[in-house]
Specification:
Length: 406
C-alpha cells in the first residue's frame, strides 16, 4: 500500500473485523504512512497519527488546542450541536495558559491518587453489592449492565453530589453528546440542552444548600475571594465530569474483563498472583484495540511531526490505541503481558492535557478486577469472543454487552 493509496482511500474511524482486535491498517499506517490524510464522518479532512512518538509529541505540545471551533477546524460530525469536540460548550473551559492551569488545580485536587485511595473501600463495597445483585439474577449475565456501567456512575455521582437515580438520563445524554454517526444533530443538540439545564438547576440547588461534594466545594471557592469558577464553568465542568467519569470507564471494565477471559491463561495468571492486578490494569489500558476515536488537536500554527510539516489550520487525530501497539515503543507490542513494567502507554494522553480523572479510572478498574477475582474465580465469557459486538457510532469505544457465566 503506497502513501498515496492510503491517503486516497482511508475513511476514519477505521473499522475492525473483531471487537478485541486492532484494524490491520494500523500496522501498515505506522510503517508506511504514520502521518496520513483521512476523511471524517462529517466529510471533512484531517491528519491521522498512529506512531507512538508522533502522538506523544502532539498531545504534549502546549501550543496545540483541543478546541475545534475555529472556522478552518475539521468537524468530526455533521451534527448541528458540533458534537463533544466541536461544540461551543467546549470553549467554556480554558484549554491552555494560566486559566487552564487554574481550572486543573481547582478540579484536579479531587482526583489525586491519595483521595482515590481513601475512596477505595467505598468503591469496593459498591462493586460487591452490584455483584451480589448480578449473581442473584442468575447466569448468564451481562457484566457491562450489571457492574461495568453502574459502578462508575455511582462513584462519579457520589463525588459530584448528584442523585444516582438519574444515571439512566446521564447515559442517554452522554451517548448523544459523544455521537459521531449514531444520533442526528437534532437529537444531540436536544440532549446537550437537557443536560445543561439539569446541571444549571443542580448548581443552583448546591449553592442554596451545599453538601460534602465536589460541586459544592467548587461553588464555595467561586463565592470567596479566591480563584473560583464562573457559573457557566461550573455547569460545563459538571457535565464534562459526568460524561467522562462514567462513559469511558464503564466501557473499559467490559473490555478489560473480556481481554483477560479471551485467553484463559491470563485470568489464571491473575488468580495465581493477585498482586499483578495493578500492572494487568495498565496493560489492559495499553492493549485496548477498541478505544474509540482518539483525541483531536487543532494546529493554530505550523508544526513539524515526524518528517512532515503540517500547516496552520490542520486538525490532527491522535490515535493513542494505535500508538500503544507501536513496536518501536513497546517490546512485543501485540502481546498482552500482565507483568509489563514500565508501561508508558498513552491511553490517558500526555502533558498538560493528560486525563484529569486517570487516578479515578485506574482505581475503579483495579477494584473491579480484585473483587471479580475473589468472588467469581470461575468467571468466563458466555459467548465466543468473535460474537462480542462493538459499540458503533460514538466517540468512545466499547462492547454492546459482555455476556458472562461462572
Amino acid at each position: 500500500m503506497s502513501q498515496g493509496d492510503v491517503q486516497q482511500t482511508l475513511s476514519y474511524p477505521i473499522p475492525s473485523e473483531a471487537a478485541l482486535e486492532p484494524p490491520e491498517e494500523w500496522g501498515r499506517l505506522r510503517q508506511e504512512c504514520p502521518v496520513a490524510k483521512v476523511r471524517l464522518p462529517s466529510g471533512d479532512e484531517a491528519t491521522l497519527l498512529t506512531r507512538y512518538d508522533d502522538v506523544k509529541q502532539v498531545l504534549a505540545d502546549p501550543r496545540l488546542t483541543r478546541r475545534l471551533t475555529a472556522d478552518d477546524a475539521a468537524r468530526l460530525t455533521d451534527s448541528e450541536s458540533g458534537g463533544v469536540f466541536n461544540s461551543e460548550m467546549s470553549n467554556v473551559i480554558p484549554d491552555r495558559g494560566e486559566e487552564h492551569l487554574r481550572w486543573r488545580r481547582l478540579v484536579g485536587k479531587w482526583f489525586t491518587a491519595k483521595r482515590m485511595a481513601a475512596l477505595r473501600p467505598r468503591m469496593a463495597a459498591m462493586a460487591e453489592q452490584l455483584l451480589d445483585e448480578m449473581v442473584e439474577r442468575g447466569q448468564p449475565a451481562d457484566l457491562k449492565a450489571g457492574l461495568g456501567f453502574p459502578l462508575p456512575v455511582y462513584v462519579i455521582c457520589d463525588m459530584l453530589g448528584v442523585p444516582a437515580d438519574d444515571r439512566d438520563r446521564f447515559s442517554r445524554w452522554s451517548d448523544m453528546m459523544l455521537t459521531l454517526t449514531r444520533y442526528t444533530g437534532e437529537e444531540a443538540s436536544a440532549a446537550q440542552l437537557e443536560f445543561f439545564t439539569y446541571m444549571s438547576e443542580l448548581v443552583a440547588a448546591k449553592r442554596a444548600a451545599p453538601g460534602d461534594d465536589l460541586l459544592s466545594e467548587l461553588i464555595k471557592e467561586s463565592e470567596g475571594e479566591g480563584e473560583g469558577l464562573s457559573d457557566m464553568q461550573l455547569i460545563v465542568t459538571g457535565v464534562g465530569l459526568l460524561v467522562a467519569g462514567h462513559e469511558t470507564t464503564a466501557n473499559m471494565i467490559g473490555k478489560m474483563v473480556s481481554m483477560l477471559l479471551d485467553d484463559r491463561t491470563r485470568w489464571e495468571e491473575l488468580l495465581a498472583d493477585p498482586s499483578l492486578v495493578r500492572t494487568a490494569v495498565e496493560e489492559a489500558l495499553r492493549f485496548d484495540a477498541n478505544a474509540g476515536f482518539g483525541l483531536p488537536r487543532y494546529l493554530p500554527e505550523e508544526v513539524e511531526v515526524g518528517d512532515t510539516v503540517l500547516p496552520r489550520g490542520t486538525t490532527v487525530i491522535c490515535n493513542m490505541a494505535a500508538a500503544n501497539r507501536d513496536d518501536g515503543a513497546f517490546d512485543d507490542a501485540d502481546h498482552m503481558d500482565l507483568r509489563r513494567s514500565p508501561n508508558p502507554h498513552l491511553t490517558f494522553g500526555s502533558g498538560a492535557h493528560s486525563c484529569l480523572g486517570q487516578a479515578l479510572a485506574r482505581t475503579e478498574l483495579q477494584v473491579v478486577l480484585e473483587v471479580l477475582l475473589r468472588r467469581l474465580p470461575t468467571l468466563e465469557l458466555a459467548v465466543p469472543t468473535g460474537e462480542l459486538r462493538q459499540v458503533d457510532g460514538l466517540v468512545v469505544g466499547g462492547l454492546s454487552e459482555v455476556p458472562v457465566r461462572w
